[in-house]
Design brief:
Length: about 325
């Protein structure tokens, strides 16, 4: 297979055309970003860890009846995928309250969410990925009501499969983000599933094993990615799916950087929002919610200080 012209360059992956009809190459680069691109780095080998875990999970899901775009690996960081017409939705499944759901709503970090909560955002960087609801998705013609129902069913199936696989490795699958595309009439899982797109906690120690290590400077990111990649892809290959109720041990609350309106970055730099200021407004409607969250300072319940990322205060933590 020959790699041809670059089709799309995202924050951490590049997609190339190939000489094979209907197939692309996805290159997982070593770039890592967070806070809406406000924090950026290049971490050696990061691309190959994420590619390896994604490939492993795509194969596992395929074996369990989930259609994905995965074809094969060309080398440790380049994946051959089927061409999909991507649906611009970020489908987030949450089993435990953490991240933006804790910042935007009155959930305590670590609370088990049963049944899992699906949140769907509009994948649109310029609009900072606002949260959608079913009516908006259909009205914007992003997906039909039937497709949306199918997307949710597949997302919950993926969640059940991943929760089991991670549990067998002593890992709590806190939440994750996935993206879908159409291949003819089939809805297929696309993009990636990696330490960049999942929130993973060690069941015994509650240690973060994902991009939160980078976001909140909790330790050596690459050492964590290396360890967790091995952990996910080694034993789990032989032993998928033990039925264990996911126990969520108590976790020390983590201090997160305060959210700011995207439009007031300059002012924000001059007068940083104090992380201890409580949120002013409860949010009611999904789309308004993110905007409100951006306006309102964040309520922080931190005992353990986590260093604020250097540079701009982020509008969001992704
Ligand atoms: O930031 P938030 O808590 O909403 O993220 C939920 C999950 O979705 C996390 O695992 C995060 O890494 C993932 N995510 C992502 N890409 C985005 C948004 C969220 O991978 N654009």
């Amino acid at each position: 297979m020959k790699q041809k012209a670059l089709l799309y360059k995202g924050k951490a992956k590049s997609v190339f055309r190939t000489d094979v009809k209907g197939q692309f190459i996805v290159e997982f680069r070593d770039d890592i970003t967070a806070f809406d691109g406000g924090k950026k780095d290049v971490l050696k080998n990061k691309g190959s860890y994420n590619a390896g875990v994604s490939a492993f999970l795509f194969e596992y899901l395929e074996k369990n009846g989930v259609p994905t775009h995965f074809v094969k690996m060309l080398d440790p960081r380049r994946m051959v995928v089927r061409e999909l017409a991507m649906i611009p939705l970020e489908v987030i499944v949450r089993n435990v309250a953490a991240g933006s759901i804790v910042r935007n709503y009155p959930f305590k970090e670590g609370t088990k969410l049963s049944p899992p909560i699906i949140v769907i955002d509009y994948k649109d960087d310029a609009r900072h990925d606002p949260m959608l609801n079913d009516e908006l998705i259909v009205a914007l013609k992003l997906a039909t009501a039937k497709e949306l129902a199918e997307i949710k069913t597949i997302a919950l199936k993926i969640n059940a499969l991943l929760v089991k696989l991670m549990a067998a490795q002593g890992i709590t699958l806190v939440d994750f983000k996935i993206e879908f595309g159409r291949s003819g009439k089939t809805i297929c899982l696309g993009d990636e599933i990696s330490m960049d797109s999942m929130r993973l906690w060690d069941k015994k120690t509650n240690e973060s094993l994902d991009k939160d290590v980078y976001r909140f400077e909790k330790g050596d990111v690459m050492a964590t990615y290396n360890r967790v990649a091995k952990r996910i892809t080694t034993k789990a290959a032989a032993a998928p799916a033990k039925k264990t109720a996911a126990k969520v041990p108590a976790r020390k609350p983590v201090k997160v950087p305060a959210k700011k309106p995207a439009t007031t970055k300059t002012a924000a730099k001059k007068a940083p929002v104090k992380a201890s200021v409580p949120a002013k407004k409860p949010v009611k409607k999904p789309v308004a919610a993110k905007a409100a969250a951006k306006r309102a300072p964040v309520k922080i319940v931190a005992k353990k200080a986590v260093k604020k990322p250097a540079g701009k205060t982020p509008a969001k933590t992704r």
